[in-house]
Fold each of these.
Amino acid sequence: VLAGSLVTGLAVTPSAQADPATAVPRIIPAPVSMTTVPGQSFTLTRHTKIVVGSRSADVARVAASLAGLARPSTGYPLPVVGPVVGHVVGDHDAISLRLAALPQLGTEGYELNVSRGGVRLAAPTAAGLFHGVQTLRQLLPAKVESRRTQQGPWTVPGVSISDHPRFAWRGAMLDVSRHFFTVEETKRYIDEISMYKINVLHLHLSDDQGWRIAIKSWPRLATYGGSTEVGGGPGGYYTQKQYTDIVRYAAQHFITIVPEIDSPSHTNAALASYADLNCDGKAPPLYTGTNVGFSSVCVDKDLTYKFFDDVIGELARLTPGSYIHVGGDEAHSTPLADYVTFLDRLQPIVHAHGKNIIGWNEIAQADVQGSPATLAQNWSILDGNTPAADPLATAAVQKGVQLITSPANHAYLDMQYDANSPYGLHWAGYVSVQKSYQWDPATLFTGVTEQNIRGVEAPIWSETLTNIHEVEYMAFPRLPGIAEIGWSPRTGRSWDEYRTRLAAQGPRWTVMGVNFYRSPEISWD
Ligand code: TNX
């Protein structure tokens, strides 16, 4: 075995033009540790097998997903064989996936070893194996993403990788309310974000402009409240069957769906659907503009709480994940005392349906508690590198509530890149690719430490985004940087090093048909 070079943290700067046999592979998110082993590369052949080394349906599914990716482009049969258990597998012309007791890797880490004989992937969980497959994918030539047979060789460089995430929550949010996105569009986004080890998809299912999930006990929410969107288009909604299909598809990508029913503001679509929910008993018209903060549920009416009990009850039964997002943002038409009363009554409803609460940062003004595991999603505009005082973050942490960090001027992917961006907003400033990458959860706030932070999330609000291609343009190339901030160690992080790795994603997105923004900040491969 040739002496390898150990790459820990993000210290090594590979050159885009380097000899592929000796170059350090460019992986996003950067692995915790990676040793390159020159001379030990593995080349897939028409005889390569994918060996399942554990008796687990989930592992078999991960193996099948790898086969599904590589068969069309390589044209090789890549049979999935096994389970082969009880002895070391994958030593010859094979890619082996197996569960192994590797407690130091936590619930999502993996070990990946590539040598001349084959590829060995081991992890404590199927999720870890899935993440390892995403790394393997980036070690293969970009054209592996093609759905048509391509010319090889299909060479994987010799590496030894040990990897696990820094934060448990690495989220993306899609606003399907301001504009509706179909099941197929949402699944496509799941495909794309899971490549970067994102493990939460927060769906913003209700807002002033549209209600996007069928609720059997309140059917007009979807049929009327979901009948339009920003700009007056036809809107839409997910049937419960379709929502369940999205949840299942996400789970196959080891992504948990976190559904949001925004409250007490951002509720015009519901208030328009049921006159009785309004304090004055009169339904407002549907709304297709882009103002925020004008609507409020009627905090003093018992019907309001029956409504949330019914809605959250149905949603909780459809949602295997432990969190329901209750919104709580921009309640400009709800007096603070009412806001507190409302959340005092809403929280036990969510808990009674067996779920934990996540809300936007403003919920820290109410009587929230870290036990049970309430989360506050912070969307403040922050420097990101020099810690700043943030009263709502401080209030949350003092109540034992952990934070999800989504600083709007770094992590909001609906912000324009610059003044020439064809879509997006800029109320939090322009967010260049560099700006989206140069911040860290641990240096956002004074008085907030890493233990107070559950993770990161990159929201996409859709006032200006009408289809998945426009969403892709905003998410790529910025989303991989947020994913890296959530996954990779902070040590040695550098924009100059990162941008060379990001450059390697361009050809992959081109092959996949992802509509990414070819930012001039990156020297694309
Ligand atoms: C603020 S950030 C909102 C959303 C808008 C977004 C537009 C937050 C919690 N609420 O209602 O869609 O700005 O960027």
Amino acid sequence: MARRKKIYEGKAKILYEGPEPGTIVQYFKDDATAFNAQKKEVIDGKGVLNNRLSEFFMTGLAQIGVPTHFIKRLNMREQLVRQVEIVPLEVIVRNYAAGTMSQRLGIEEGTQLPRPIVEYCYKDDALGDPLVTEEHIAAFGWASQQDMDDILSLALRVNDFLSGVMMAVGIRLVDFKIEVGRVYDGDFMRLIVADEISPDSCRLWDIETGQKLDKDVFRRDLGNLTDAYTEVARRLGVMPKTS
Ligand code: C5P
């Protein structure tokens, strides 16, 4: 078989040219990184779990009318997705204080926020993805005002969906990050959810015990990351099959 053309290799995923124009194969690696790749480890099985979990979340979003890049899962580690023009923003939604928000504002981790708070970071590894305001986004032309309205609406719909799905299995959605991309259907441009949604990009705490079931297990050396992600998959009924 001909070698596929690698388009991009990131910290946790590799993108290959897809079989049809406008498609991409997204490969999930086992690599875990934190603190802008200052901490790195290979974690057996993480890629398989994230491939399956991202499929589950993206499929659920599509069912409630939230457009995503997901087309289909190809195998244990790969999924076929639509090629998008990625908006250079990390869109973070927070329901409870944690992580950098707690550090920045001195709010104790786990404090419920008065309402979901959406933050934007400029996607730039060399700069460590700095927090930016809508002023920066507009002034530097990273997204238009219409894009920002659409991004906010997508982010809040993803939050409602994910919060509900996780709550149903006894997990609190503390916060998460999404990325969005532009797709062009003829002259018409629209924004869709891209990248991945997985315990790598969410904070998930057991509602009863507060146990962390997300990448903080790795960031903070709290135990076995695969066990945590497997628990999320088990509760959601999406344990990876062997095909
Ligand atoms: O680190 P911070 O508290 O800002 O992260 C907020 C949320 O966004 C967390 O769920 C984290 O996993 C996610 N995130 C991410 N990728 C980044 C930064 C944050 O998935 N580069």
